[in-house]
Each structure stands twice: as structure tokens, then as C-alpha cells.
Amino acid sequence: GQNIDQPTEMTATEGAIVQINCTYQTSGFNGLFWYQQHAGEAPTFLSYNVLDGLEEKGRFSSFLSRSKGYSYLLLKELQMKDSASYLCAALDSNYQLIWGAGTKLIIKP
Amino acid sequence: DADVTQTPRNRITKTGKRIMLECSQTKGHDRMYWYRQDPGLGLRLIYYSFDVKDINKGEISDGYSVSRQAQAKFSLSLESAIPNQTALYFCATSDQTGDVETQYFGPGTRLLVL
Fold it and tell me: From the candidates A36, A46, A48, which should be mutated to test the interface with B, based on the most B CB atoms within 10 A?
């Protein structure tokens, strides 16, 4: 079966760095997405990786290892507004997105 | 104005009632999707449409139907609502830029079935 695993909840301190991990098992693979979702709001696109390596975009970076079926989202210089859920999603061989349940990130002052 | 809109934003209905959730987009995208989101679960795909004449079942289509009235409109119907269809429903559109197909979500519809 197809499966996405990510931690349910994480806590971090304002100004610090946090890494949110995601492992995936899909039938075929055409890329890995990260979305941010604030409580009660729609998910919004953060990043896309299809090749191995690190993609940096401001305070957010995303890493992919296709051989390990593994990705992480790295958030630097955490701000209170980063408190949200972070959704990992893998694109399978049929170009369907398989979604993880999301990681709720709590930022403390 | 929002690019992807959903109506209603909140809805309470009773078991057995037929209801329709509507989605409109001004992004000009051909591809549209309906998802449901439940606490502790990932987004689950109900139906998707790649153009006006194309409708496809997703992971959990039982109990739902859709209509793609135009490129900009994609509606989801619950023919006979049941309590386990209580969820947050999202409509999404997508386009392809290079190798990336990014989905854009509407604000969601909270549905409670009593």
C-alpha cells in the first residue's frame, strides 16, 4: 500500500531551527511536496523536490533522498506565525498526491 | 478576490438529506479536485477532473458525486448524507509549471451531518 509517515506534533522555540521528517512509500514516485496549513485555513504550497538534495527558499529548506524514501522540511529563525500544520505529500506513478496526516508545529516564545 | 472559492463555508444538515458543495475558480486551471480532511488523517481525494468532459473517482468516492459544469466550476454532491461524512471539504485546482504541478486550495467547507 501507499503510505506517508510524519510526526503528529512537534514543539520548538521562537528563533530556533526545527526539522520535520517525512517518509513515504508509494507506487512510483514523481516528487515530494510540502504544504503549510494554519488552523482552520486552506493548505498553501511551500516546496517541491523531485531530485535528491536540498532546496532552499528563504527561511525554509526541503531535502529529498529518493533511495531512502525520505524528506525533511527545515525551518530556520522560527517565528510565532510559523505555528501551523505541515503536510507532506508524495506524487505517485499516476500523478496522484498521497498525503500525510500532517505535523502540528507549536512555537513557544 | 480569492482565486478559489467554496460555498457554503459552513453547513449543518441531517442524515438522509441531499446537499451540494460548490467550488469556483478564476485561475483558469483545467484540473480541479475535491478532498476531505478529517482529524488525524491526511487529505483524501474524493473526485478529480482534468477538464470539463473528464471525471475520475478518487480514493473515497462512495457516497459522493460530482459535476463539472464549466472549466471554472466543480460541484460535489452528497446524495444522502450520513454522519461519517462530517468533515472539512476542500476544493483545489492545479496547473503545471515546468515539472511542478502545484495545487491551490479553496478555503474549505465545514460540514456537520447530524
Answer: A48
Secondary structure (DSSP) of B62-97: TTEEEEEEETTEEEEEESS--GGG-EEEEEEEEEEE
pLDDT tens readout for residues A52-103: 999 999 999 999 999 999 999 999 999 999 999 999 999 988 888 899 999 9
**Structure-block grid coordinates of residue B45:** 481525494
In angstroms, the CA A56 to CA B18 distance is 47
Q: Calculate the CA dihedral of residues A91, B88, B34, A65 and round it to 10 degrees.
A: 0
Q: Of A27, A56, A8, nearest to B40 (Cα)?
A: A8
Chain B contact set for A99 (CB, 8 A): 42-44
- Residue that the C-alpha cell 449543518 belongs to: B12
* Mutation for A interface: B30, B91, B101, most A CBs within 10 A: B101
